[in-house]
Amino acid sequence: MTTRTPNVLLIVADDLGVDTLRIDDAADTVLVQLKGTAAYPLPSLSRLVAKGIHFTRAWAHPVCSPSRATLFTGIQPWRHGVGDPIDDPALPPALVREGGADLKTLANFVSDASYQTAILGKWDLGDDPHKNVPTLRGWHHHEGILAGGLRPLDPNPKNKVAYEQIIQHDVRYVSWAKTICDVQSGVKSDIKPEDRPYKYATEDSVFSARDWIIAQSGKPWWVTLALIAPHVPFHVPPKGTYTIPFKDPQNPTDQEMFVAMMEAMDYYLGRLFDDPQLQDQLQNTVIIFVGDNGTDDTLDDKSGDDKNAVYIGGIHVPLLIADGGSIFGNAPCFLAPHVISSEQDKFVHIIDLFQTIIDIAGGHGPTAYKSDSISLLPYLKGSAAPVRDYIFSQFYVPNNPDAIKKIPTYKDRYEKYGSRATISDGTYKLNYQNGRYDFSELHHNSATDQTTEIVTNNFKHPKAKELWQALTTPGSGYYAETDSLGGTFPPLPEHAPLIFGKAMRVALKADSGNYLARCNGCIPGAAYPDSAFVHVPPADMLGSPWAQFTLRDLENGKYALQADSGNYLARCNGCSPGAAYPDSAFVHVSPADLAGSPWAQFTLRYLDNGKYALQADSGNYLARCNNCSPGAYPDRAFVHVSPADLAGSPWAQWEIVILVS
Question: For the segment 406-422, what is each residue's pLDDT rounded down to a tens digit?
Answer without folding.
Answer: 666 666 766 666 778 89
